[in-house]
């Protein structure tokens, strides 16, 4: 599988984009970043399989309890999860096999932005939690709105972690406990402002 | 009886949330070279759970105020009304989604999708091809 794909991008790349210059930098950069990536990617692969498991088990659970009023978002969400998995597998292949040319650029881009790797909360779970919170059980939510809520909650969690890391740095500079572990007290300090901001 | 059932369900939902938050935090920590205590993850789960239930009540209220029984993207955008940074994040996200959907064939969409599309087309005065 990999050898034909490696040869194709090379050939394609030569004529369309230009230089031998660009071929050089990507190769060493992937080589240097590879060990660090290897660790996180394997864990990503592991989590993706478990996510798949939970995704497989959840829809049946929901239909059994009959609580979700809208069915189309769930199906779309399930599709979304599958796409995510495929993306991660692709990344895995790119990281381990070190393809040259445009494919490395494609591999580096998601690693740089990293927002697209996986949602903080699985869409199915978030939909269930939202419907649980509605007082009117006939309330429905659009698919697009659902994914925007997903983004909103992901931003919330990311922000919480980032602020906690910031609090930890502060605390360590002030001479507190310094084992580098995020503590509940960090969260306690940031929670009021965080909730006000969201 | 009903109370215990409801609380049981809540507990199960919370543990599901705990699991996914835990995984997300672990990933973030690997990326940023940090560590998090299990207590931190538990507390964060509690915070997120509360935030989600507040959010869902807000969304319901917004939609009802607009005289709808369906939450639209506009209602979600209202969540970010007090935070400009967040608003721009969500706006770019919505634009990305719409760009992707525009590229994908719109006719294959389900009922809800189609309705959304039609509404968008009408709003901006551009017809579907």
Automatic annotation (TrEMBL), chain A:
Q: Report the Gene3D superfamilies cross-referenced here.
A: Histone, subunit A
Does the UniProt entry include the keyword Amino-acid biosynthesis? no
Q: GO terms for molecular function, please?
A: DNA binding; protein heterodimerization activity
Q: Where is this region: Disordered?
A: 1-121
Q: Which UniProt keywords apply?
A: DNA damage, DNA repair, DNA-binding, Nucleus
Q: Mind telling me which Pfam families this protein's record contains?
A: CENP-X
Q: Which residues form a coiled coil?
A: none
Q: What's the protein here called?
A: Centromere protein X
Q: Which organism is it from?
A: Lepidopterella palustris CBS 459.81
Automatic annotation (TrEMBL), chain B:
In terms of CDD domains, this protein maps to:
HFD_CENP-S
- Gene Ontology biological process: DNA repair; replication fork processing; resolution of meiotic recombination intermediates
Q: Which domain of life is it from?
A: Eukaryota
**Keyword list, A-Z:** DNA damage, DNA repair, DNA-binding
Q: Looking at the record, which segments are called Disordered?
A: 102-129
InterPro entries this protein is in?
Answer: CENP-S/Mhf1, Histone-fold
Which Pfam family, any one, appears in the UniProt record?
CENP-S
Which family is this sequence assigned to?
A: Belongs to the TAF9 family. CENP-S/MHF1 subfamily.
- Know the name of this protein? Apoptosis-inducing TAF9-like domain 1 family protein
- The species this protein was found in: Lepidopterella palustris CBS 459.81
């Amino acid at each position: 599988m990999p050898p034909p794909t490696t040869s194709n991008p090379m050939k394609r790349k030569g004529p369309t984009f230009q230089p031998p210059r660009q071929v050089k930098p990507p190769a060493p950069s992937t080589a240097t970043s590879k060990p660090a990536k290897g660790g996180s990617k394997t864990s990503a692969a592991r989590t993706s399989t478990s996510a798949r498991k939970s995704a497989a088990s959840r829809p049946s659970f929901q239909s059994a309890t009959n609580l979700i009023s809208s069915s189309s978002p769930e199906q779309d969400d399930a599709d979304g999860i599958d796409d995510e998995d495929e993306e991660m597998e692709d990344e895995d292949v790119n990281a381990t096999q070190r393809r040259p040319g445009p494919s490395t650029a494609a591999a580096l881009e998601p690693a740089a932005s990293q927002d697209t790797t996986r949602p903080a909360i699985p869409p199915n779970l978030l939909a269930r939690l939202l419907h649980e919170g509605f007082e009117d059980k006939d309330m429905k939510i659009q698919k697009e709105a659902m994914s925007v809520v997903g983004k909103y909650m992901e931003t919330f969690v990311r922000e919480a972690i980032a602020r906690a890391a910031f609090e930890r740095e502060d605390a360590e500079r002030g001479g507190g406990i310094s084992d580098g572990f995020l503590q509940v007290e960090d969260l306690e300090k940031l929670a009021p402002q965080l909730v006000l901001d969201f | 009886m009903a109370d215990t059932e409801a609380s049981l369900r809540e507990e199960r939902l919370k543990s599901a949330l705990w699991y996914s938050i835990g995984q997300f935090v672990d990933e973030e920590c690997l990326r940023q070279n940090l560590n998090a205590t299990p207590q931190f993850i538990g507390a964060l789960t509690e915070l997120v759970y509360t935030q989600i239930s507040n959010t869902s009540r807000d969304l319901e209220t917004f939609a009802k105020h607009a005289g709808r029984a369906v939450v639209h993207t506009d209602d979600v955008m209202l969540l970010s009304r007090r935070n400009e940074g967040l608003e721009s994040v969500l706006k770019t996200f919505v634009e990305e989604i719409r760009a992707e959907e525009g590229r994908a064939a719109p006719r294959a969409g389900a009922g809800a999708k189609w309705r959304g599309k039609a509404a968008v087309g009408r709003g901006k005065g551009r017809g579907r091809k």
